[in-house]
Amino acid sequence: MTVSGTRMRALLVLLALNAGSPVTNQQLIDGIWGQRPPGRALHALRALVSRLRRVLPAGAVEWHAAGYRLAAPPEAVDALRFEQRVAAARTRTPAEAVADLREALDIWRGDALTDVADLPFAQAHIVRLEELRISAIEDRIEAQLQLGESLRLTAELQSLSTAHPLRERLRGQLIRALYLSGRQADAVAAYEETRRMLADQLGLDPSPALREAHLAMLRGEPVPHAVHPPPEARPPDLVLAPPALPTSNLRTQVTSFVGRAADILEISRLLDDARLVTLLGPGGVGKTRLAEEVATALEQQLGEVWTVELSAVRDAAELPRAVLAVLGSPEPAGRASDRSGDIDRLIGALRSRHMLLVLDSCEHLVRATAQLGGMILSSCPGVKVIATSREQLGIAGERLWLVEPLALPPVDADSRTAGSYVSVQLFAERARSVRHGFEVDDSNVAAVVRLCRSLDGIPLLLELAAGRLRALSVEQLADRLDDRFEMLGGSNRMSLGRHQTLRAVVDWSWELLSSTERTLLCRIAVLHGGATLHSAERVCRGPGLAGEQVVGVLTALVDKSMVMATGPDALGEPRFRLLDTIRLYALEQLAVTGEEQAVRRAHAEHFLEFAERIEPTLRGHDQLDGFEWLRANQDDLHAAARWAAESAEPELGLRFVGVLGWYWLLTGQHVECENIATRALRRADGTAGRVLSVAHTMRALNGFGHQDRREISASLGIAADLGGDENGGPSHPAQRMAAPLLATLTGDHVSALERAGVLISEPDPWMSACAHFLRGETYLQLRDPATARDELGRALERFHVAGDQWGAGQVASSLADLHTSLGDHQAAARHYAEAIDRLERFGVTEDSIEARTKLARGLVACGEHDRAAGMLSAALDAAHRLGMREPLARVHYELGESARRDNDTDLARDHLGRAWQLLRTEAGAAQRRKPGRHGPTADSCVPRAPGVLRSVRMALAHLRGVSE
Questions:
Q1: I need a labelling partner for 416 at 20 to 30 A (CA). Which of 55, 208, 350, 358 fits?
Q2: C-beta of residue 22 within 8 angstroms of C-beta of residue 64
Q3: Phi, psi (rounded to 5 degrees) for 950
Q4: How many C-beta neighbours within 10 Å does residue 234 have?
Q5: 3-state SS string over 422-460?
Q6: Which residue blocks in 668-784 are alpha helix, DSSP H?
Q7: Comparing C-alpha atoms, which of 590, 602, 617 is closest to residue 649?
Q8: How far apart are CA 850 and CA 838, in angstroms?
Q9: Which residues contact 812 (CB under 8 A, 6 or more apart)?
Q10: pLDDT reading at 660 higher than 50
Q11: Which residue, among 595, 389, 404, 359, has the nearest Cα to 512 in the 3D structure?
């Protein structure tokens, strides 16, 4: 596999450096083109992604609401695997660290990112990776020195020190290795060389540690950090030492720490440069455990480590006393305590000590903690502080570290892929504690993925859920997470009260909010796909919260970790979203306020207004931009449409059907259209005729191949009879096609041609294209292929003029079918390729998968068997991602036929058997969806695939040697 072209390699590198996570469109554009992006940068990026997808395995590059994502675990990328190995090594014993670091360094096969080194984005990554490589070498040498391998290291260290003369750590390691090898004179000479070089080139003196090592060597004493003999090799002590005073109150953990090794490393590095690091994040995300793990990792280095749990401290005046109590400095007897006296005693107790102080759960005492922390930092130079909070302290010198939820697997992840994600690993680890031998496998992976995603990858919630597996299966648990506050009760009595139940976790945060913050949180919860600032201002304003207040209150909620700022979406707009658990809690509170209906109405009206403005672009040159906006807001559009269809305002629901109908057609979401349209039409009494007309048109257009022909005819008949604007014209361009479409359905081909012919001369090229397309399809039914080809050719030209990519894809697919029927497989292949290219710009749909399977069939007819096999493989991957039975069955049928032609009976039987089972299952589902409307045979329940079930049956019979 070769990725040619600098820009395409840059795209691959940018995606690989974030493997498994989405990279926004803007980040990709900036990285590839820098300060000089092309005029239509988003279109250029899509084209580049399309080219890259042709080179990489199917499904490797996935579209994401935020941009694009390389569907690979981080371990599949050398640079990320290297970073993970190095991070893990720094938490291990010296012997384990040496082995791990050697494996990590073996991953390097040359300089980093050489193919894109000239691009601006690459330099920072190259410098960072190179620095990490040298640091890993230094870590490996340090571990070997601790193991007593100084003799083996002197030659390597001399070479490294020559290559990196200003790295003081390497110089110090060389000096120690020489001294520990018995070469005291050489060690002193190396120190002098280092001292002169630092003075000459930088005007600096050696560090205190190096100077201390130099003095120790001159005295013949052990140098700092020198390795002492292991305990069993030391002579027995002659005098019993007094018991040592405690230097830590860290708890011994009873559960493993899953993931976040890189976080421990980075936070430790932050503490090298700063003396206060605040770990921020929502409740249950793991701030306390992460702080404890960092403290454990630094305990040997810092000497003393003390952690102070503040959740039980309610009065700010008690804060200094709580810290003193942990440090073993209780209030003096016989003397009244006051806050200023407590602070003085605390500063006195800390002033001369070297230690790490962990202040855990500060969010309810932010101001007092900030004041106390500032005093400690300014008066006690040997003290470093880690604070955990849902809100930053906001004092000078504070460094922030956002503790994010654990990475989530894709919706359609298989057991192997899902198992590479930390959220799944944690859930499985905790599940094994209550259900011995639990593993994530093909039988339960869908439920595990659904559960992890529903719980947002929050460690505490995953642990609470795992505790329920003693009584429930994963599937039962995942199905009941809508009632998660009841399901996830206390399962660990050792936890703090606020961590024993899910409701207690959220209650703790809720109580810390002001009334205005609570109002905004309740209202913003109705936004399903995350809020832009504009949508938040429009939907959330109302009694108690003016529109101009929203930005300030929203910022406060972000600061308090109740709302997450997720950066720009696919359209470049910053988004704000709630974790699903917080959203459900806020919706409960919204129902209590009595204003839920008003907020939902504001939500529906806002998104309807925007959709009505965007919808016309779906039939022109801005089609893809309009499509991207609708797709980015699909969750909110659908939620608003469902609410409107079921509310007491049916006209609002019907307007949603009209405005989203064409989008549903483009994306193949026909069932969504049917469900919402059916509910809205039930309540349609008194609704304006033109609104009804458009809704029936959209329902009919989405029903082709899915609904009963009589239902489609009924909808088209109503659409043709109703509706029109105040001047008598149709209210939607597609509605003008209702009459000719109805004539086609009823077999009145002459009337269909005449009615469509009237529209051909329309100045709107889109309308003209639709008319030619309908006439072409009608001539195909009349068995006039020559005229049909002419009409379809004109339709393709007019769709190109109109700028409708989807329409052009549909016509190209019809032309390909026509050329196939005429035996011109080369022409058919060209048209199928065009159809696939245009249709897949709108994501994977049934139409694009069908085009791929037909193209594969045509390639076989042209003798291009390898290319056909690749096309079917891509179609199978796309069908799995789409998750619909019928398209998947079609692909399995084609693969079975291909295997049959190759005389691979076993493979053919496997694929055809899967196709048969999928079609039978879909047939049963169709009967359940529309009872009594289909005949008794399974074939009649698969209207999109006429004859496919019969073809599968015949192919299976042929394999059994039975004539059908």
A1: 55
A2: yes
A3: -65, -40
A4: 9
A5: HHHHHHHHHHCCCCCCCCCCCCCHHHHHHHHHHCCCCHH
A6: 670-682, 689-703, 709-721, 738-745, 749-760, 765-781
A7: 602
A8: 13
A9: 796, 831, 832, 834, 835, 838
A10: yes
A11: 389
**Confidence (pTM):** 0.66
Q: Length of the chain, please?
A: 964
- CA separation for the pair 365, 312 (Å, rounded): 11
Tokens of 79: 């640079």
Yes or no: say if 143 and 97 are a contact pair by the CB < 8 Å rule: yes
> What residue has token string 């995606």?
15
Note the pLDDT of residue 229: 32
Number of neighbouring beta carbons within 10 Å of residue 185: 10
Q: What is the pLDDT of residue 644?
A: 92
Instruction: Summarize pLDDT for 125-154 with one digit per residue, the tens.
Output: 787 888 888 888 988 888 888 888 887 888
Strand-pairing partners, residue 280, are 389, 402
CB 833 within 8 A of CB 852: no
Pairing of strands 564-568, 574-577: antiparallel
Which range is least confidently modeled, 731-735, 807-811, 936-940?
A: 936-940
Question: What is the percentage of the chain residues whose pLDDT exceeds 90?
Answer: 27
**Tens digit of each residue's pLDDT (9 = 90 or more) over 307-316:** 998 888 888 8
Q: Are 70 and 3 in contact (CB under 8 A)?
A: no
d(Cα 636, Cα 539) in Å, to the nearest integer?
Answer: 12
Side-chain half-sphere exposure of 508, counting CA atoms within 13 A: 23
Task: Work out whether the CA dihedral 829, 773, 734, 722 comes out positive or negative.
Answer: negative
Least confident segment among 334-348, 507-521, 736-750: 334-348
**Hey, what's the torsion of the CAs at 917, 923, 927, 930, to 10 degrees?**
140
Q: What is the reported pLDDT for 801?
A: 94
Q: In which residue are the tokens 């005007």 written?
A: 203
User: Which of 519, 558, 557 shows the shortest CA–CA distance to 539?
Assistant: 519
Cβ contacts of 607-610, under 8 Å, gap ≥ 24 = 607/535, 607/633, 607/636, 607/637, 607/640, 608/640, 608/644, 608/652, 608/655, 608/656, 608/659
Q: Under the phi-then-psi rule, with left for phi > 0, alpha for psi from -120 to 50, and beta for the rest, what region is 495?
A: beta
- What CA–CA distance (Å, rounded) separates 929 from 955? 29
Of 753 and 226, more confident: 753
Q: Are 895 and 854 in contact (CB under 8 A)?
A: no
Q: Is the pLDDT of residue 242 over 70?
A: no
- Judging by beta carbons within 10 Å of its beta carbon (0-12, 13-18, 19+), is residue 747 exposed, middle or buried? exposed
Please check whether residue 810 is in contact with residue 798, taking contact to mean a CB–CB distance below 8 angstroms.
no
Longest CA pairwise span in the chain (Å): 114
Cα gap 325→459, rounded to integer Å: 30
Lowest mean per-residue pLDDT among 98-107, 607-616, 843-852 = 843-852
- Token pair in block for residue 946: 């006429």
Distance CA(565)–CA(559), nearest Å, equals 10
Task: Give me the sheet containing 22-24, strands edge to edge.
Answer: 22-24, 67-70, 61-64
Give me Rg for the CA atoms of the chain: 34
DSSP 8-state assignment for residue 545: B
Please name the residue that has the structure tokens 């959709």: 611
Q: What is the 3-state secondary structure (H, E, C) of 326-385?
A: HHCCCCCCCCCCCHHHHHHHHHHHHCCCCEEEEEECCHHHHHHHHHHHHHHHHHCCCEEE
Distance CA(760)–CA(539), nearest Å, equals: 43
Q: Compute the CA torsion angle 59, 60, 63, 69 (nearest 10 deg).
A: 150
Per DSSP, helices labelled H in 560-685 are 580-593, 596-614, 623-632, 634-646, 650-667, 670-682
The owner of tokens 């596999």 is: 1
pLDDT of residue 482: 80
Are residues 527 and 520 in contact, defined by beta-carbon separation less than 8 angstroms? Answer: no
Query: CA-to-CA distance for 323 and 380, rounded, in angstroms?
Result: 14
